[in-house]
Each structure stands twice: as structure tokens, then as C-alpha cells.
Design brief:
Elements lengths: L6 E9 L3 H5 L12 E8 L3 H4 L2 H12 L11 E10 L4 H10 L6 E2 H5 L15 E3 L3 H18 L3 H14 L22 E5 L6 E4 L5 E4 L8 E6 L2 E4 L2 E3 L1 H13 L12 E3 L2 E2 H6 L1
Antiparallel strand pairs: 1-2, 1-3, 2-5, 4-5, 6-9, 6-12, 7-8, 9-10, 10-11, 12-13
Helix pairs in contact: 4-6, 6-7
Length: 279
């Protein structure tokens, strides 16, 4: 009897000739035939094994070796592997975040909708994504991690999730800290975000001992710019969305929280990042 899976591996692979470009966080251009394929496979294992790179890669390769049956015409290479609690369709969650309006990236599912003559046209697999950089994939993976953490209430499961998050994010700081336009080579601001502090009107005690009335949107708006990967620039400092949310929730709202889902507190054009991703 087959053992019930308890983890899902999400793998990212593409043409071997693009591997260096992907690792350097350069844009993979659809116009020049560049793409990534994002898929998943199930795994039954213990937590100690799944935090070992080689073990996860070997199990991902068992599934990836079946890919040539789909007729991929070029030699490919595995770019990245990530691991999550078992859940069918985790690769879909990652792709939805990548291909949402927030990131302005397209995939085969979007292109399939444009087919006009269904009789003699064959739809491409929805797993193919175009116009992507590694930092965007890592950012999408991190948003899935944050969402899972925000929903979990069981302490033991949270501990496991934290270990999975560390595995998924181990290479985050090795990506470029800013996304550059291939044409100009200049820094490109992806998103300008504002932090909301939904604490209602209340009196809090500040660090200097004075009392301050805090309302939903404080007068001194905390703003940040998304600069690539999962990195933000905020008030001359770079860090993750969850780090800044936690920092300023404590500074302005007096809230000391162990874990924070940064996407619940950062807004783009007045809408929370979590809402934008769902749409």
C-alpha cells in the first residue's frame, strides 16, 4: 500500500541555455523562446530529510524525468525546487501569484484563451510561464509560505512550516536586490506600497513615554518600494514585507507579534496585497 504523501515539491525548470540567465535574475524573454515550467510532485518523508537539498532534488527529478513525454524540444535543467505541506495544486498557487496583474506576467493558460481555431490548434500546458525572473518566482513562493503560516493555528504544524519556509528562502539573499531593465540597466521600481495599521482609534504609549492617538491610517504614512525578490526598500533600509510590517506595528501600534503576514498590511493603490493576489 502506497504511503500517504505529507509534502508537495514544486519544481522550476527550463532550457539549459537559459540556466545562467535565470540564476543571475535576468528576465527570460518569451520573444527569444525562453520560458520556465513550474510543476509539482508528492512526497512521503520526514522533516529531517526534506530540509536536505539533494534529497528534495532527487525526488523532484523522479517526476521531472517523465517530462520528455510531453514533447519538450530542448535540453532542460532544473532551476529551483521548493517544498510545502501536501496540497494538490500548490504549483497552481505559485503560478497564480506570478501571473496576476500585480506582476504582469503571462503563462500558457492565458495564451490558450486566445486560440481561435480549436479544430487544428493544440493548447499548451498551463505549467509554462513567460517573462519571468528568478526573484519574482521566489517572491511568489514566499507569499504562499506566508499565507500558509497565517492560516495555521496548530503549534507543531507551525514549527514544520517555519522549517519549510527556511528551506524555500535559503537563497533569497543571493538574488539581486533590485530588478534592472535589460535595455537601460537602470533600477526599476516595481511597486510603491503603503503600510496600513488597522488598530482603530486608541491611545498608546510611545517609546519616549508620551501618549499618542493612533487611527486606522496614521498621518505619517510608512511607504516602501518593492525592489526584487522578496526585498523592499523602506526609509533607507532594505528587508522583507513581514519584517517592516512587524517593525512598524510595534513602533506605531504597540503590537508585539511573533509572526506577521506582511501581505495583510501592505497596500498597492489602496488594496491589500493578499486581495490583489486573490484577484
Amino acid at each position: 500500500m502506497k504511503e500517504k504523501p505529507n509534502f508537495t515539491i514544486v519544481y522550476v525548470f527550463g532550457p539549459a541555455i537559459c540556466a545562467k540567465k535565470y540564476k543571475e535574475d535576468q528576465l527570460l524573454s518569451r520573444e527569444t523562446g525562453e520560458w520556465v515550467k513550474i510543476g509539482e510532485t508528492e512526497l512521503s518523508a520526514n522533516i529531517e530529510d526534506i530540509t536536505i537539498d539533494e534529497y528534495v532534488m532527487d525526488n523532484a527529478m523522479k517526476r521531472i524525468h517523465q517530462e520528455p513525454r510531453t514533447g519538450i524540444p530542448v535540453i532542460c535543467e532544473v532551476y529551483d525546487v521548493f517544498i510545502f505541506p501536501y496540497q494538490i495544486g500548490t504549483d497552481n498557487y505559485v503560478r497564480r501569484r506570478l501571473c496576476s496583474e500585480l506582476f504582469d506576467i503571462e503563462n500558457s493558460k492565458k495564451n490558450n484563451e486566445k486560440l481561435e481555431d480549436g479544430k487544428y490548434q493544440i493548447k499548451a500546458g498551463v505549467e509554462f510561464v513567460y517573462g519571468v525572473t528568478r526573484s519574482k518566482i521566489l517572491y511568489a513562493v514566499q507569499s504562499v509560505d506566508h499565507e500558509l503560516l497565517a492560516k495555521e493555528v496548530d503549534d507543531e504544524k507551525i514549527k514544520t512550516l517555519v522549517r519549510l519556509c527556511r528551506f524555500n528562502q535559503k537563497n533569497l539573499d543571493n538574488t539581486s536586490k533590485e530588478e534592472k531593465s535589460p535595455a537601460s540597466g537602470q533600477k526599476k521600481a516595481i511597486l510603491n506600497l503603503d503600510l496600513i495599521l488597522e488598530v482603530g482609534a486608541e491611545v498608546i504609549l510611545t517609546k519616549d513615554g508620551s501618549k499618542t492617538v493612533v487611527v486606522d491610517n496614521i498621518g505619517d504614512v510608512v511607504s516602501a518600494t518593492y525592489i526584487g525578490g522578496n526585498r523592499f526598500e523602506c526609509r533607507g533600509e532594505t528587508g522583507r514585507s513581514s519584517y517592516f510590517a512587524k517593525k512598524y506595528l510595534e513602533t506605531y501600534a504597540g503590537k508585539k507579534m511573533q509572526t506577521v503576514n506582511g501581505n495583510e498590511y501592505w497596500t498597492y493603490n489602496g488594496q491589500k496585497l493578499t486581495l490583489l493576489r486573490k484577484n
